């Protein structure tokens, strides 16, 4: 009997010793609950509708930018809420529009990566009077010599950077004046023979010069001249960056002058800068706080690291080595294969700056959701809303303890999410929903609601992604 007891204790000891859940000092991955500040989340829903452009951002010139050195570029990053007035009467209609746009985004990514994918349904027509455009995060760059300032949407899900260009055959509404090639000394057409033209997925030749076309799968597209220009980032100007000068642009980019492609392909902005790494920190989407997008900055020491993988067939997207998810301090029984790219090159998990709500395979989603629901039985339930099937009425609370949710990467690395990154307000009267959603695809996406307030770093040389909760 004593022998049995000894073996049993040894067994328990070994089990805890070999547990893959070794964690960093500051973030107890096994904390059962995390505090959600309900009042502060609801206050932000009012702020976003009371648009009040931040005066700091009205200044022009390099003084508004963070410091730059020759080895390191940095530029400001803004939420849409801080530069563009939402046209919604209340936070609920803003949420519904954001969730529809998010489905449009996910449909366009998953149809590129997964031929068997069934697109998500939308609750209404996407181009409507209240359409606010896609992309929640913007930076300001200078195009040309002298530089014309332009807000561009940050996008890790595509490679080609572009701005709307005069003369416009078709341009949507934007905040800044349309870029005028004739007023830039550095504007140079790319010839059809150049590599940059050959790397385009869709190109044409006109009088020996290269024309580009990018379609985003959601009905949005841009077509125009493919040119090299000087791009100014913060206080630094970089010559000969291939960008699209879009004369014919249609879509959901309302407010921005164009897009900054941060994907993994050879035409992406980091690739053209020859960057070894880049990172961004996404501020709360409803705040007017300013953060940064950085190139070649050192990795933060406290970063939770994960492997960065590429699919050679689809080098735009950044795949991350997610191996598990825990809820309430307990690692859930999800086979690691649910998160892996299989032998047919399908599945896997991508990190995307433009998708809002993290998508998980339906089976995986059910396991995560059910565990969360088990830990929140004492909270009053509310009706489903759009993508969200797990909602609560927190109108009578000022704060609540909710089960801790954490992403587990290989080698015992654990990213504990703040409660506001997975229990989000959907109106201004206290309805909150669990901000994960199922997908019929085998591919999962880690979205920007879950990335908020975290510096996400892509080490392109060593193939590592870092998540730093305290380095915005
Ligand atoms: C990147 O490297 C290529 C090839 O070495 C070079 O031609 C180009 O000027 C570099 N670009 C920058 C921005 O340093």
UniProtKB/TrEMBL annotation:
Entry-linked Pfam families: TAXi_C, TAXi_N
Keyword Protease: yes
UniProt superkingdom: Eukaryota
SUPFAM superfamilies: Acid proteases
Leader sequence segment: 1-24
Molecular-function GO terms, alphabetical: aspartic-type endopeptidase activity; DNA binding
Gene Ontology biological-process annotations: proteolysis
Protein keywords: Aspartyl protease, DNA-binding, Hydrolase, Protease, Signal
Recorded family membership: Belongs to the peptidase A1 family.
Protein name: Peptidase A1 domain-containing protein
Annotated organism of origin: Pisum sativum
């Amino acid at each position: 009997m004593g022998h049995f007891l000894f073996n049993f204790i040894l067994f328990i000891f070994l089990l805890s010793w070999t547990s893959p859940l070794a964690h960093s000092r500051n973030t107890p991955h096994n904390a059962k609950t995390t505090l959600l500040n309900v009042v502060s989340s609801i206050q932000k829903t009012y702020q976003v509708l009371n648009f009040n452009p931040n005066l700091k951002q009205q200044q022009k010139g390099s003084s508004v930018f963070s410091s730059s050195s020759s080895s390191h570029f940095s530029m400001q990053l803004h939420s849409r809420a801080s530069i563009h007035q939402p046209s919604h009467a209340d936070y609920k209609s803003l949420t519904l529009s954001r969730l529809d746009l998010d489905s449009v985004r996910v449909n366009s990514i998953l149809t590129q990566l997964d031929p068997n994918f069934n697109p998500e349904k939308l609750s209404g027509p996407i181009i409507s009077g209240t359409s606010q455009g896609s992309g929640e995060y913007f930076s300001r760059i200078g195009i040309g010599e002298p530089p014309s300032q332009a807000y561009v949407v940050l996008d890790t899900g595509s490679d080609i950077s572009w701005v709307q260009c005069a003369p416009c055959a078709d341009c949507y509404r934007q905040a800044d004046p349309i870029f005028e090639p004739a007023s830039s000394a550095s504007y140079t057409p790319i010839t059809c023979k150049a590599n940059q033209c050959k790397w385009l997925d869709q190109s044409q030749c006109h009088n020996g010069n290269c024309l580009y076309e990018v379609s985003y799968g959601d009905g949005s597209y841009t077509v125009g001249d493919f040119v090299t220009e000087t791009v100014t980032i913060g206080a630094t100007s970089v010559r000969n960056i291939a960008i699209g000068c879009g004369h014919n642009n249609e879509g959901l980019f309302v407010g921005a002058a164009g897009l900054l492609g941060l994907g993994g392909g050879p035409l992406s902005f980091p690739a053209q800068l020859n960057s070894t790494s880049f990172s961004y920190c996404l501020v709360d989407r409803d705040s007017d706080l300013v953060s940064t997008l950085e190139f070649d900055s050192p990795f933060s020491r406290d970063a939770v690291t994960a492997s960065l993988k590429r699919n050679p067939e689809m080098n735009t997207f950044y795949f991350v080595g997610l191996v598990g998810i825990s809820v309430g301090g307990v690692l859930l029984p999800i086979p690691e294969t649910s998160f892996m790219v299989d032998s047919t090159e399908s599945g896997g998990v991508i990190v995307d700056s433009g998708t809002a709500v993290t998508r998980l395979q339906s089976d995986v989603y059910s396991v995560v959701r059910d565990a969360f629901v088990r830990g929140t039985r004492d909270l009053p339930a509310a009706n489903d809303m759009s993508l969200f099937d797990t909602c609560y009425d927190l109108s009578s609370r000022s704060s609540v303890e909710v089960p801790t949710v954490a992403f587990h990467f290989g080698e015992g690395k654990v990213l504990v999410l703040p409660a506001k990154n997975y229990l989000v307000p959907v109106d201004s009267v206290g309805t909150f929903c669990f901000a994960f959603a199922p997908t019929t695809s085998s591919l999962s996406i880690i979205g920007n609601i879950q990335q908020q307030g975290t510096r996400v770093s892509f080490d392109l040389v060593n193939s590592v992604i870092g998540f730093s909760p305290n380095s915005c």
